[in-house]
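Consider the following assembly input.
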Amino acid sequence: MGLLSPWWLAGLLAVGLPVWLHLLQQHKMDPLRFPSLQFFERRTQSSVKHRRLKYLLLFALRALMLVLLALLFAQPFLRRDMASSGGARHVLFVVDDSFSMRAGDGLERAKRQASSAIDSLSASNSAQVLSLSGGMSVLTQPTKDKAELKAAVAAIRPADGRSAFTEIARAAKTAGETLKVPVEVQFFSDLQQSSMPTSFAELRLPPNTTLVIPTAAPAPTANFAVETVTAPSTVSEPAKARLLATVAGFGTPAADKTVSLVVNGKTLQSKPVKLAAGGRASVEFLGLDASYGWNRGEVRIEGGDSLAADDTFRFAFERADPRKVLFLHEPGRTRGAVYFRAALEAGAENLFALEPMAVNDAANVSPSRYSLVVLSDVASLPAQLEDSLKKYIAAGGGVWIAAGATMASRGTVPLTGAKVIESRYAGRGEERFFTPGGFDLTHPAVAKANKWEGVRFYQAIKVDAAKARVLAKLSDDTPLLTEVRSGEGRILFFASAFDNVANDFPLHPTFVPFVEQSARYLAGIDARSATVQAGSFLELRQAGSKLGAAVDVLNPKGERALDLKASSTAETLRLTDEGYWEVVRQNGQRQLVAVNADRGESNLTPMPAESADLWKRTGEAGTAGDGSTTIEQKPQSFWWYLALLLLLTALAESFVASRYLEPQGAA
Amino acid sequence: MLQRFLDPAVLSSISSLDLVAKTVVDGFIAGLHRSPDFGFSQEFAEYRMYSAGDDLRHVDWNVFARTERMYLKRYRGETNTQLTVLLDSSTSMGYASPGQTRKIDYARFLAASIIYLSVQQRDASGIIVFDDDVRQFVPASARIGQLHRVLHAINLAEPHARTDFAKPFLHFQQFLKRRGMVVVISDFYADPEMVVKSIMPLRGQGSEVVLFHLLDPQEIAPKINAPVVLVDMETHDEMEVTPEYAKGEYREKIDAHIELLKSKAQGAGLDYMLIDTSRPLDAALREYLAVRQGRK
C-alpha cells in the first residue's frame, strides 16, 4: 500500500478536534437550575456510565470520519501483483520492413527469424505480428494460432518507409493496457542507428515489457546513395535547365563513382565524381532534354552496392512552352512592362513570356489565349475587352491589376468596380514615403516576399476593400495587395504601379519572387513539388471543395491507388512506395510525382550493442535480480471504497449525534 | 380576543401591574357575561332599610311607591368581605422553564388580578409577601388608594430566600381581626402536613382559605433527555439526574406530593387548586369567585 499524496496525512491532526471535544469537554456539563430537588435522588454512577458509552461511540465515529477524510485526500493505493513469469503473456513479433531492410537479405532473414520464433511460442501465450515501416502496422489480431502468425510474417513485403523505434514502446504500451498481461516484444530488425530518436528516453518501454532482439545487430554495411536531387518541376527551355544532385557514401571508403542523368530511360549525361571516405559530393547537370509533358527523370550512381534501391533518385518534371502573359498599359507608358518583364525573366524557371500591349489595341484580343492578364494602371478598358475579360475570369482566369495615378483619376477600378477612396501621396512633409506594414504570409503571392524590406511607396491608391482579402498593407493600413475571387477566377489588385515611379519596388530583389509567385498563382500553376519522400501525403483536393469529380491516382505499378469512392471523396493520399505516381486531377490536369525513400534509411550503421542492451532493460523494472521472476506490482487506487465508508460513517455519526445530542435545555 | 390577555405570556409584556390586573379582570368579566353559571354584581341579593347616610341612588323607588318605606336594593357584589393574599416570594418561585413565565410573575399577576377584582367589589384587601419571613405587609382595607398600595407591595415581591410557612402565618394570625378570605399563592415546596398545619388556624377563625399551588410545567413533568446536573435554587445543592428518573420516579413523587397536599387541604376545609403557569389566569379567578360566592 502506498500514498500518492502523503502530505495530506497531516490532516490526521484534525482528529485532535473530537478528542478535545469529547475527552476534555465532556465533563464540563452546564448545571441547570431547578426550583427544588426534594423529589430527586442522586443517580450519578449510572448516568455517567451511560453518557460515557454514548459519547465514546460518537467520538469514535467522528475520529474515524476525519481519518478517512485525510486518507481519501492522501490517495492511497494498493500494489496489485500482475502475472508472474509462469503466467500468460502477450508476444509482439515486430518485423522491420523499412527501406534499409532491402540491403542484402535483411528482410528475408528477419522473416525467417520471426517464423522460427513463432514456432517456439508457448501454448499459453497469445501473439500478434506487426511490421515497422513509416509506422507500426498491425498484421494480425491477438491469437494463439501459429499458422496465422506465420502466414502474416510470410506476407510481409519490402516497404519504402522509414522505421522509428519509438513505435515499439507505443505498441507495447497499447498491448499491455488492452490485454492486461505482461508483454514481450520480439523485434527483428537491422537496428539502424538512424532510426533511434534524438532522446533515448523516448525508447523507454512500459513496465513489465520484455524486449527480445534475437540476433546481434549485423556489421556495418558500406552504402552509396544519391541523397538529394534539385530539379525544376517545369522546364520551358531544356537547354537552360539546371539539375543538382548530391551523392553520399555511408561507411564507405574513398571512391570514384560515375553519376548519370537518365530521362525517360535514356541516359542524357554521365559525370565522374570523387567521393571521400564516408563523404558527400555534388554533381551538376545542365540541360534537360525531354519531350513535352511530364517526364520521368533519375539520377543514378553506377557501381552497385548492398542497398541498390537508394542508388537511384527519381524526379519528375514537366516540359512546357512559356506561358503567355498579356500586359496591358496606357499608350506610351511602357515603364511598367519593362520592369515586369525583367522580373519574370529573372525567375528560376522561364515559365512566362510577356506580351505588352497598349490597351487601345487590345479591343479584339481574346484573353483566353493567355495564362494571365496584367492591367498596368489602365484608366479604362474597351467595352468588348472588358466583357471578354469578365468571362475569362469567370472561367478561371487570373487578372492582375496595378493601380497608378491614371486609374485614381478615373475613380473606379476596372473589372472589380471597386471605388477609389483616395490617392495617397507621400509628401515632403511628415511622411516622405510609406513602408509595407503587414502581410498575409499564408498566401502564395507574398509567402516568399520577405516582407519587402526597404521598399518605399510614394503613391498608393486606396480603394474600397470590404469584399477583398487583404494580402499586404502599408504601415498606415492602406491595403496594398488584395485579392478578389470572381467566379472560378482570381483578381489581384496591387494598389501601386510597376513603373518605378509610384514606388521603388522594381529595384528591389524581392520584386522578382513577388512577380513570379503572383504570376504562378494567377496562372494556376501548381506550386507543389513533383519530387517527394515516401510516406508523404499528396493533396488530392482542397478541404471543403466540391466533392464528386474523381481524382485518379496510379501507383508506381500502374494500379489505381484509390477505389471509386475514395477517388471522389479523399482529400489526401499517402505515397508509400518509391516510384512515379500519376495523378489526374478533377480538371483533367495530369501530374507526375516522383517518390523516393527517406535517405536516412541509407545509413546502415547499427546502433551500439550497449544501447541495445540498455533499451532491453528499460521495460524490466519488475524483474528480480536473478531474472527468475517478473512480478510487476501495479498501483490500484481504492479511494472509491474509502469514500463509501466515509459516507456511511457520516450517516452513522448524524444518527448517533441526533440521538444523544438533543438540546438539554428542556430541564 | 380578551381571553388572550389572560395568557401569562402576554401579560409578561405589560410592565404596569395595575394595567395587568385591569386587563385580566376586564377580560375575565367580559367572559363571565357570556357564562350562564356565574352572576356578578347585578344579581339581586336583599333589601335593607334605609338609614341616614345611605346613598339615595340605591333606594328602590318602586317599593317606596307601594309601601311608602324606603328600602335600599342590594346586590351580591355589594356584599363586602376582607381579602388577604399571601404571596410566596421564595427563590424557587423565580423558576421558569424555557418559554414560560416565571412563577413569581404569574403569582404577581394572579394576586394583582384577585385584588383588583375584590377592590371592584368594594372588598377590603391586603397583601403579605413572604419567604422565610414576612417581606411586605399591607393590611386589608377598603380605603381609597388601597389598590395602589397593594400593587406596590406586589411589585416589590422578588424571589428571595427559602420558604418557611410557619413564621409568616404566625405573623398573619396576629393581624387577623375579622373573618374573611385568605388566598395563599405558593409552590408549596414543603411538607404538606406542615403547610396545612400552619394554615389551619386561619380556617379555625372562620376565614375561607384558598391555596393556589403554582407549578411550572417542567416541575410537573420534566423533559430531560440526557443526564444533567440540576442545582436546587434555594439550597444550591447539585445533583446529577438521569432522564429515566425524571420520567419515572420524580413524576410519581411530585404527583404524590400534590395529591397529599390536596387531600390534607381539603381535609382541613381549605380550598386547593393546582395551577400550571402555562395556563391562562381565568381558571384561578373562577376558583376565587366560586369560593367567595360559596361563602355567602
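The beta strands of chain B are 44-49, 71-75, 82-88, 124-130, 134-141, 181-186, 208-215, 228-232, 238-241, 271-276. Ask yourself how this observation constrains the way the partners meet.
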